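SEVERITY: medium
COMPONENT: batch folding queue
REPORTER: lab tech (J.R.)

DESCRIPTION
The queue accepted two submissions in a row. Attaching both inputs and their returned structure tokens so the on-call engineer can compare them side by side.

ATTACHMENT 1
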Amino acid sequence: MKPIWGKKEEFLDRVYRRSHSIHSKRYYSFGIEKFRQFCEAKGLEVNKGNVYTVIDSFVADLDKKGMKPKTIADYVSALRKFLPFAGIDIDPLKFKAKVVMPRVTKIADQPLTLEDVRGLLTRGRPNPKIRALILTLLSSGMRIGETLSLTVKDINLESNPPRVTIRAEYAKTRTGRIAYFSDEAATALKEVVKGQPPERLVFDYSGDLWEREKLAVRTFRAVVERAGLDERLENHRTHRIHFHSFRKFFLTKAVDLIGDHAGHALCGHGFYMDTYYRKSEEERDRDFLRLMPSLTVFGQGEKGNLKTDMKREILTSVAGYSEEEAEKLDLASISDKDFQKMVRERLLGAMANNGSRQRVIQTGGVEQYIQQGWEYVATLPDDRAILKLPV
């Protein structure tokens, strides 16, 4: 019998043709490749006679190496579709009897809070792109893949409430929908998309969707770590705060305030969309406007202004002001321009005493420096950023 591995690319092309999902294609590829490596290392040639024994040994090997049960289940799911395509049928009853899978346990989540998000946006010192991404995910309920696929022409920052058109080809359910986001997110997005052409990605990380998501996650994890919120769930490798935390936060608030159908529909859950989208556009707008205050991090002040509490936290957490110094300032009356000048002067003053461990660069080079181990400190008004090396 010829080796089955030559059929891998044809199988993956079929997977992509059906779903048009880069993620699905990559996950199937990982599972098949792990199985191939295992078989070659053990000198095994899988066939109809030994398929269950070989898969069971593969599962046992992954389990001994400490791989998560959910990941093992994903890899085996890929094999159960690939092997029949390659001519090795798998009987569900025989598989269940002969292959012992580790039990997938449900993780007890620790819910995200607005206080956590305030910490990310202040102590975490995100660059403008990540700040806009955090606020958009928090207030829209969109999936990270949907959000990273948005182009400038997909968002309407001037409507009330601000909205986004999620195109069917980028939605997980392959059904297009309208989502909304907060005024606060709209203000952050304006800074990101200003002057950009309609076809440009809003969050323009390089590569395909898989690679863009990896870059976004890497940059986000640096923000979470700087904010001091990088703890993991008890007895698990999963971080407490991750991109999906924002979607869970949104759904919880939405279900509580505007109802089950509306909340799930805004998140893109297909069954609920069929009934919810019979509402008029005006009714859906009113639903989200009721919800928006619960998805706003720094209060309901005037659009486009930094909120007083955010200013205070930036001064104490980023610029090195003491609580007493910050309390003496009338932050509500300080303009954004003057506030930025205050922060810049304090940070540049600190740099003078910090040798080569800090530097000022153009914002376009921030991601490259972060990947080299530098930490983001702040953005200056002249499109430059301050970076520092960790202590």
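ATTACHMENT 2
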Amino acid sequence: MILPKLLESEQKSLAQFAGGFALGRFRTRGWQWVDDIDTLRWTPSQVGQFLAYLPFIPDTWERSKRLLTEDESHYWGETSAHPYEAETGLGTAVDKLIQYGRPYAALRCLQRMQHDKLPFENSTAVQALMEALRSSEGAQSIDAYAIVEIIKALQNDPSTNPDDLFRLECAYLPLLDRHHGASPRLLERRLAKEPGFFCEVIRLVFRSKKEERPSEEATEAEKSIATNAYRLLHGWRTPPGCGEDGTYDGDALAMWLDAVKLECSDSGHLEIAMTMVGHALIHVPPDADGLWINRSVAAALHAKDAGDMRDGFRTELHNSRGAYWVDPTGKPERDLANNYRARAEAVEGAGYYRLATTLRELAGSYEHEAERVLSRESFDD
């Protein structure tokens, strides 16, 4: 008579008291106490709230199904869904949580399963991730790490539907960066293998040289798409020609470049496209003969019409240094200058003198930086 009313009390403290009482009784008397309670006059909401205070385990779920019959939303919508209370049956819980609009709770369960190396249905994980994007449940219910780990598990499973993975990487692109230990692997491979896709992404981010400035400001949706497209290009580390097994195919690079040049010339995006390609090419492997850069890439960068690509290559090499502490002696800058001069000599010896010139320019910029550091320290003294 008293318990069901307290469970739904408008005073939060009374409802918490009732929940604590129910859990305490369960711990001392077990399921016999639960099953002896006459709930025939209880409302479905009261039954669901009562069960939600009990441990998140299959025995509770079975009683939810038996007592609430067709509509279990009063339980699955209220349970804390703490995945580490259940030793088995989390797959069933995931399905129920998705069914009753709790995708973030479902993702917590999937994270537990992934952590314990328990199998789960890829399609179910995809559904939970996609529904979480439009859920009112609240993103604070799960952290970014858990989402990234589930996506990485899907990426590592060859049975994952590529179309599903494509949608997920597009949707969660802001999380798939090096800070979270992840990358949009399928999207990067598409950039590297499909010239048309690369050109489409370029057009999403950059305005054509053949077009006048648009008279209307972009919508929020268009801005969001452009921002994600730029993130993809900025973090691209799988350049054209790179095989998934670590090998490099120079012929594939040449064909990819020809197709991109043709399409981007027509659209008015050639210069910026080549600059972005140059950014990605710093990630190519060494050549099999020991040269620090694959010879096919060195030849492409050496080409007479590859000035924009060389500029992008040099800029990205400089940016790849990342954040650093300033050494007042300027030694790190001098070491970098020496490193790039040595690389320049190696590629010049191989016949790629235009690329060598670009690397010497980069070395010179580090030498000037070292001089500025020393001058600044002398001035401060």
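NOTES FROM REPORTER
The mean pLDDT is 93.
No errors were logged for either attachment.
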